[in-house]
Amino acid sequence: MLKPRSTITRELINLDGLWRFAVENPNVPEPWKGVLGGNLEAAVPSSYNDLFADQKIRDHVGWVWYQRTVRVPRGWTGERVLLRLDAATHEGKVYVDDVLVARHVGGYTPFEADITDHLSPGDEFRLTVGVNNELTSATIPPGSISVSQDGRRQQTYLHDFYNYAGLARSVWLYSKPERHISDITVVTGVIGRTGVIDYSVETSHKTPVRVRVLDAAGHEVSSAEGTQGTLTIEDVSLWRPGVAYLYNLVVELLDGEDVIDSYTEPFGVRTVEVRGTQFLINGEPFYFTGFGKHEDTAVRGKGHDNAYLVHDFQLLDWVGANSFRTSHYPYAEEVLEFADRHGIVVVDETAAVGLNLGVQGGLTGVGPKPTFSPETFNHETQAAHAQHLREVISRDKNHPSVVMWSIANEPASNEDGAREFFEPLVQLARELDPTRPLTYAAVMFATFQNDKIADLFDVLSINRYYGWYIFTGDLQSAEIYLERDLRGWVEAFGKPIMMSEYGADTMPGQHSIWDMPWSEEYQQSFLDMNHRVFDRIDGFVGEHVWNFADFQTSNGIHRVDGNRKGVFSRDRKPKASAHTLRARWTGLNGAKPSVDDTEETEVLENGTTGLDAAPALEGAK
Questions:
Q1: Exposed end of the chain (fewer CB within 10 Å): N or C?
Q2: Where are the beta strands (DSSP E) in 235-371?
Q3: pLDDT category, 454, cuts 50, 70, 90?
Q4: 277 and 384 assigned to the same domain
């Protein structure tokens, strides 16, 4: 599915703004028929949860309704008219007047409806969108619904971020010709100084196709004809981390000499490869520095905001970060486009977070159920995961900033059934995109000794919290066990390894001269300890701190108004650790820090490589 763009043959109207809003009412079974009752309005894009002062709306489980009127331009006669929703979290239904025109399950990927036959150019119609925030064992991410003794429906989920819902991304009305371009795929390579671009174009009708490559100045540097082929660019300018260069692929459908549809797809020429224990971009070793992030701001929730987009990337540049992971779902397309233009490397992650019932057991003290079973996460869950993979890769496949797919965060990869669940998904991801490496983020329970799926992936991404959930306040013991752990993964699998999460909750303004958890100094010391270990590990290719900024979570006594592991506060003020990271990362330019091998901790000489002596995990990240 191509992102709507304004071209010489296509027009685009943004439908963002204030929409009428209502929570489902059992007394109004078909709210899309007629004007929504009440006087509430909600901003689009934004999550609805924090907009209102009513606790019942914030805690609502089920459907809510958005509505506005839309006028179709008179000039769109003879064109196909489509509605596009960039996301509806987690399920959406779209009505044009009284007619259901689209339904989609999955909260972080786009969907659209061709509404040409339901309206006439120049006419106005009533657009109603229902959004359902329910999570079940057959959704990605998963969850469950229960009913309290007083009859309230309650949502339980297994991820540690707030289940914001609504229309958090833009809504569009756009036109395209009857005969049109349906999809474009761009795969790039480099031979010497020549860029090689394999392209494929899908069209609605069998129609002659012309493709042209324009450089950043708009000059044509290559061209071809046909729905698929290979283009070359002599003396190519590569897309590099920190130094982005984008070309435009202009695809045109022809009727004789006339252009009947035109679409422009930006792309960058770069290669990505895993070789031995190295991660290579354009044939050069790359070392990831950066964060796991969240789409999370006050009031807006997960609502996309261009001001925060710009400011967050400015902070990434200031702190010396060259990359981030889209934890724990695919972000708005505007984020990836910005990364493309500014040379920031992205690990693009699916919304498969929470596929681990062991974490819930660790928090409640109740023995967990098996994660993978007919009664828990099963073939329906796997099918939802597979469909989500298809949609994410289809949406993001042409972004040069995306260098790796992360297909899950902290699954129960140590449990029976994990391989049967994930192996078909890995195979599917490789079929959909054979050009990018695959990874997943390994939970603390999964070790190099018991993990059942690590060999299926190209890069090992490890989430570890030694010094926080384990050995809290004891950074000396944490350093010993962290190094044992990481060396075990390297020796067992011989793959590149990176730390995809490490962090400590920190309250701004909390200070101590001792190693006191929650203090700003402890967060600095915690990071320093991790970095000493990373620098001693061969085959270590990156470090993503958890988290970029504080973010909202569900209620819990182990959370103080959300997760406080941010290096920046939720309103993007730096904690002391931001300066610690800036001192380390600035000037690295994607190269791994070097260290004298003699600095390895002496305790590792005793031959112990396992984690048998580590205490049990006392919480979740």
A1: N
A2: 247-255, 258-267, 272-275, 278-281, 284-285, 288-292, 323-325, 345-349
A3: very high
A4: yes
SS3 (DSSP) at 608: coil
Instruction: Please say if 410 is a catalytic residue.
Output: yes
Give the residue ranges of DSSP H helices in 80-175: none
Q: Which of 176, 202, 225 is the last residue of a domain?
A: 176
- For residue range 111-131, list pLDDT tens digits in order: 999 999 999 999 999 999 999
Write out the residue range of the structural domain in which residue 237 sits. 181-270
* 8 Å CB contact between 400 and 340: yes
520 in catalytic set: no
Tell me, yes or no, whether 611 lies in a domain.
Answer: no
Distance CA 441, CA 82 (A): 37
Does residue 198 sit in the same domain as residue 346?
A: no
Task: Return the SS3 of 280.
Answer: strand
In the predicted model, is pLDDT for residue 603 greater than 70?
A: no
CATH of the domain at 84: 2.60.120.260
Domain final position from 149, 176, 203: 176
- 112, 501, 520, 521: the active-site residue: 501
Residue 516 burial by Cβ neighbours in a 10 Å radius (0-12, 13-18, 19+): middle
Residue 1 lies in a domain: no
Q: Which one of the listed residues 410, 415, 483, 521 is annotated catalytic?
A: 410
pLDDT digits 0-9 by tens, 156-177: 988 999 999 999 999 999 999 9
**Two structure tokens written together for 9:** 């043959």
pLDDT tens digits for range 239-255: 999 999 999 999 999 99
